[in-house]
Amino acid sequence: MNKNIKIINKDYSIENSINNLLEALIYLKENKNNALSFKYGCKSGVCGSCAIRVNGVEKLACTCSIENNDVIEPLKNLPVLKDLIVDDNNIVNKLNQSKAQLSEKSNEIISQNDVNIIDIESNCILCNSCYSSCPVYEVNPDFIGPFALARAYRYISDKKESQSKDKLDAIQSSGVWDCTLCGACDLVCPANITIKDDIMKLQNISVQNGYENPAFSSNSGGFDSFDGGDFSGGFNPNGF
Asked: Which end of the chain has the least Cβ crowding within 10 Å, N or C?
């Protein structure tokens, strides 16, 4: 008995013995449709190039088991070049926008605890799953976005970096305050990075360094504006 799957609104049948999604895609390209286009590299969940959506959820094809009637689609919120291949130029653009790289090395002595603080963020494989799942990026492509903010936190918290203030400046506009903290990025991150927590930490670090949430700074109503349950102009705990 074969498995039936759908790839971009086209039905395919594959042998029941094929259980891995990437293996299924390679099988289909070699045996059913040699024009089918997709990306892959390491085949071991490290490079991030094979990220796609399965039944609406972001997955890495090389680590994903396939089931009967699965629906396979390209990542959302990114231009589709062909079939399951998306334009990933946003990786470089967003990392540059957030200045998420070591700019100027300090002379600080680094302990193992210092390394541990930023270790998990260093595991990001830039697969774009978080951008595909992000509701803010979906409506605002200028939003710096999940992995770039997580990377910014990694370098802002890195004692080797002497220019962390520049990085904080870079993430204030269309950045750290625009996130709704929904946690959709956390649910799909193959490296298990808690991006939502990193963004919350960036908000706290920003406040400690004199920045403020523009949603609050532009709010002239304050608590006194509450009138019969009307919270317009008043305090919103989510910051939007």
From this structure: N
Question: How confident is residue 117, by pLDDT bands cut at 50, 70 and 90?
Answer: confident
**One-letter identity of residue 33:** N
Q: C-alpha 233: how far from its chain's center?
A: 31
Which residue matches tokens 């978080």? Answer: 130
User: What gap in Å lies between CA 12 and CA 232, rounded to an integer?
Assistant: 52
Q: Which two tokens stand for residue 212?
A: 């403020």
Which class is 90-209 in CATH? mainly alpha
Strands (E), 74-115: 80-82, 85-86
Q: Give the Cα separation of 137 and 175 in Å (integer).
A: 10
Q: 6 forms bridges with which residues in the sheet?
A: 11, 71
DSSP state of 108: P
Say if 3-76 and 90-209 have the same CATH topology: no
Element (H, E) at 53: strand 51-54
The correct answer on CATH 3.10.20.30 for the domain covering 3-76 is yes
How many angstroms separate the CA atoms of 132 and 121, rounded?
A: 19
Give 181's Cβ-side CA count (13 Å radius).
13
* pLDDT for residue 206 is more than 90: yes
Which of 25-53 are b and which e, b meaning 16 or more Cβ less than 10 Å from the residue's Cβ?
Answer: bbebeeeeeeebebbbeebebbbbbbbbb
> At a CB cut-off of 8 Å and minimum separation 6, what does 1 contact?
16
- β-pairing, 71-73 with 3-7? parallel
pLDDT digits (tens, 9 = 90+) for 77-107: 999 999 999 999 999 999 999 999 888 888 8
